[in-house]
Design goal:
The protein has about 350 residues and is α/β, with parallel strands linked by helices. The chain folds into 2 domains: about 140 residues, ATPase, nucleotide binding domain (Nucleotidyltransferase, domain 5, 2-Layer Sandwich); about 180 residues, ATPase, nucleotide binding domain (Nucleotidyltransferase, domain 5). It has 13 helices and 10 strands. The strands form 2 sheets. It has a 5-stranded mixed beta sheet, sandwiched between helices. It has a 5-stranded mixed beta sheet with strand order 8-7-6-9-10, with helices on both faces. Helix 2 runs parallel beside helix 3 and helix 4 packs across helix 13. Bound molecules: 5'-O-[(R)-(carboxyoxy)(hydroxy)phosphoryl]adenosine (KG4) and zinc ion. The site of 5'-O-[(R)-(carboxyoxy)(hydroxy)phosphoryl]adenosine has 20 residues, from helix 5 and helix 6.
Length: about 350
């Protein structure tokens, strides 16, 4: 059984063909990074326009690379939310038209469920069994959620961010310091060059659910740190670097980033990693997790991977490979297989749902 997955919820136009929830036949991702980079974040109108431009060639490439035609598919799966409405609409409308033209079943997938399935697919591909219940931490630019997964398709929300998502905090701190979007990968590359204890952040104590996250206080602390220093010239040097070189290497960034700023970046990353793992550890204990899954764009973070490996979860901790951590359509197709089995198909009334929840 082959499913074509389509993902357009944010700033990546992606299509992939997956066979039997375990074999990736193709995985095509057209990134809009160069479009949004200079704005410091995703500009929704530009994102929709770029999706419109990319969707036809991206799906065509995915089918070609998989060596199959629409007639070889069992279904088309598409992200229905959460995400940017204008962006989601492009994928949904295109998926609907393919299904209508070829009489294929249409499957709507929650983007966060996709991130979790990226890990389940890779485990299945390697012939590794994943024991349930699973604690899933989904940390990306749009969400930071902890889910209890009793079995595939059964989710219970344990905690979520009350303000910024973890990736959003990375992106905002990077932007504040003159780095382009997305800031997460840049901070990740520079953090090992700074002292993670160089800057001390005191985190506000939160009332209510102890498994909820909050990153806005940390962001404000970074804003204060920047305001207390005269960084205008330093920040302008970095902006100028990007104007001349859209993809600077680590050495280029190091040449325009003094030790004090590297210490700040390392300390900021360390704090985010500590916060993510502290709550994931507490959640895993509360629900007696047999496996921990950490996925979403922030799961690419080397500091997080290293810290998770030495954290005392008492059960296996699984990350997707970096290519399947950030947004892709393999994960959307993978998440659709259990729905195909249950014949859980969407109708023509499938709509883009910006705030779709998983549980
Ligand atoms: O999952 P994703 O591709 O899109 C959303 O669903 O939001 O995640 C993108 C987010 C961005 O905020 C980006 O800065 C962050 O993931 N990210 C990282 C790293 N790579 C991507 N954050 C920290 N370290 C990284 N290496
Ligand atoms: Zn995502």
């Amino acid at each position: 059984m082959r499913i074509l997955g389509i993902e357009t919820s944010c700033d990546e136009t992606a299509a992939a063909v997956v066979e039997d929830a375990r074999a990736i036949l193709s995985n095509v991702v057209a990134s809009q990074m160069t479009t949004h980079g200079k704005y410091g974040g995703v500009v929704p109108e530009l994102a929709s326009r770029e999706h419109l431009r990319a969707i036809v060639p991206v799906v065509r490439d995915a089918l070609e690379q998989a060596g199959c035609s629409l007639a070889d598919l069992s279904a088309v799966a598409v992200t229905e939310g959460p995400g940017l409405v204008g962006s989601l609409l492009v994928g949904i409308t295109y998926a609907k038209s393919l299904c209508f033209a070829k009489s294929l079943p249409l499957i709507g997938v929650n983007h966060m469920e996709g991130h979790i399935h990226a890990v389940l697919l890779e485990a299945a591909a390697d012939g590794r069994q994943v024991l349930f219940p699973v604690l899933a931490l989904v940390a990306s630019g749009g969400h930071t959620h902890l889910f209890e997964v009793r079995e595939p398709g059964q989710y219970r929300l344990l905690g979520r961010t009350r303000d910024d998502a973890a990736g959003e905090a990375f992106d905002k701190v990077a932007k504040l310091l003159g780095f382009p979007y997305p800031g997460g990968p840049i901070i990740d590359r520079l953090a090992p060059h700074g002292d993670p204890h160089g800057v001390r952040f005191t985190l506000a104590k939160m009332k209510g659910n102890p498994l909820d996250f909050s990153f806005s206080g940390l962001k404000t602390a970074v804003v204060r740190w920047v305001e207390q220093r005269d960084l205008a010239a330093e920040i302008e040097t970095r902006r100028a670097l990007v104007r001349h070189n859209p993809a600077p290497a680590r050495e280029d960034w190091l040449a325009v980033t003094p030790k004090s700023t590297l210490d700040l970046l390392a300390s900021f990353q360390q704090t985010v990693v500590d916060e993510l793992l502290r709550r994931a550890l507490a959640a895993a204990e509360v629900m007696d997790a047999e496996t921990v899954i950490i996925s979403g764009g922030v799961a690419c973070n080397a500091g997080l991977r290293k810290a998770a490996a030495s954290a005392r979860f008492g059960c296996p901790v699984l990350f997707p490979t970096p290519a399947l951590s950030t947004d892709n359509a393999v994960m959307i197709a993978a998440a659709a297989f259990p729905k195909l089995e249950r014949k859980q198909f969407a109708g023509w009334d499938l709509r883009a749902r910006a705030h779709l929840t998983l549980a």
